[in-house]
Amino acid sequence: MRHLRARLTGLDIPRPFSVDALCEQLAQDRGRPLHLLPLPGPPGPGQPCGMWIATPTVDYVFHAHGTSALHRQNIVLHELGHMLCEHTGLGGAEAAPMFSLLDPAMVGRVLARGGYSTPQEEEAELMAALILERAGWPGTSPSPLGDLDDLL
């Protein structure tokens, strides 16, 4: 858990917290735009609920639409967790069929989330929780999960 907390060192968590403000901060820190977009097509079994695509000049974070605001926030924070952890994933060629607007040669990294079965997915989910913890959410009440440090 210490290595995840260390990745948040120096990250200015906006107060009051908002995902949009955090994305603006990350875009500024990374020196490139970060766009939040709904995933194309309806959500469903076998479809990712979130995805981060990094190109040399821009980051795209896709999220499922038709879900609650809280779920959408968690999806985006999870994808930002991948970004902050510098996780790697599928190459650009795999993204081409799903996102024809992107040139596969320009896509440096694609991470799609459909479950939490790998260490990268677990780290990204914990990073999302750590961001919310640093933002002061859910306030002063104890976390239903207990101390996040006890999860690892």
The strands making up the biggest β-sheet line up spatially as 1-3-2-4
Query: Gap between N and C termini, in Å?
Result: 7 Å
Q: How many whole angstroms does the radius of gyration measure?
A: 15 Å
Give the biggest sheet.
4 strands, mixed
- Strand segment tally: 4
What is the string of SSEs from the N terminus onward?
Answer: HHEEEHHEH
Strand content: 5-15%
Task: Determine the mean pLDDT.
Answer: 78
Structural class: alpha+beta
Gross geometry: globular
Helix count from the secondary structure assignment: 5
Helix content: 25-40%
Low-confidence stretches are 91-96, 140-152
User: How many domains?
Assistant: 1
Describe the protein's architecture and organization.
- The protein is 36% helix and 13% strand.
- It has helices at 2-7, 19-30, 69-85, 92-95, 119-134, and strands at residues 34-38, 50-54, 59-63, 109-113.
- It is built from five helices and four strands, in the order H-H-E-E-E-H-H-E-H.
- It is an alpha+beta fold and 152 residues long.
- The chain has one domain (2-151).
- It has a four-stranded mixed β-sheet with strand order 1-3-2-4.
- Helix 3 (69-85) crosses helix 5.
Q: How is the secondary structure organized here?
A:
Layout: H1 2-7, H2 19-30, E1 34-38, E2 50-54, E3 59-63, H3 69-85, H4 92-95, E4 109-113, H5 119-134
Parallel strand pairs: 1-3
Antiparallel strand pairs: 2-3, 2-4
Helix pairs in contact: 3-5
